[in-house]
């Protein structure tokens, strides 16, 4: 009886939120790890999960930014815990997962979202140390988080859902992004292999591949312009992005059949679908969230 009253109270608190009003209670009482939680995708995912009743473990290297995210998600009446850490440290990842399981009781889901874009240069000029760092964060760190979360889920015996953030850069061959594109291709393939390995334990593993998302905090490609200026590859501007949004719209959005940039919430809606029981018969899937860019077909 008391638990029913508390659940009703939490639902009422969530219903009072106007920024991310709950669309349902798909994650009521679920415990979910979100990596990259201080960033755009991770922060919004945490808030949208909290709006539907999930308790959240917020993980990010930017430890100083996590308390603000925690404060906001807790307005939904859920429990949140911050973990400021480097996901390339395997031991720290293992300990983090153990702490989440100990404090929350179970781990029901993982949004494996932390990542690093890296340098912006042609392959013959690409710095080796940066290539290694991109792989270490985007592939090895993601793998460690997936591995230890899966171990916890297997021990629980209740299954679970894991969503890895890949990118359409891993589906195509983006110019001047050798490390990032290769790392995201690895994430897509790792997700599929993991889906097969973990299926006997009823642990589903899927990935999402967004592209052309903005402008919540400025278009993603503006960061690429900055990197272009830092690396100054010859004629890079002829092949990639401009920092003028009108030019971007003409050069880049023109290749998107839906003729617009995507919203962060549209990406996270896909992630939440894959984390929820609504996708209970889906595993090993990569969702292309690019407005149709990957399949092409846009006309000038």
Automatic annotation (TrEMBL):
Transmembrane annotation, as ranges: none
Signal sequence, start to end: none
PANTHER family associated with the record: 3-OXOACYL-[ACYL-CARRIER-PROTEIN] REDUCTASE FABG (PTHR42760:SF115), SHORT-CHAIN DEHYDROGENASES/REDUCTASES FAMILY MEMBER (PTHR42760)
Listed CDD domains: SDR_c (cd05233)
An example molecular function term from Gene Ontology annotations: oxidoreductase activity, acting on the CH-OH group of donors, NAD or NADP as acceptor
UniProt entry keywords in alphabetical sequence: Oxidoreductase
SUPFAM superfamilies found in the cross-reference section: NAD(P)-binding Rossmann-fold domains
Designated name of the protein: Oxidoreductase
Pfam families, per database record: adh_short_C2
Gene3D superfamilies cross-referenced by the UniProt entry: NAD(P)-binding Rossmann-like Domain
Superkingdom, taxonomy of origin: Eukaryota
Species the sequence originates in: Lotharella globosa
Family, similarity comment: Belongs to the short-chain dehydrogenases/reductases (SDR) family.
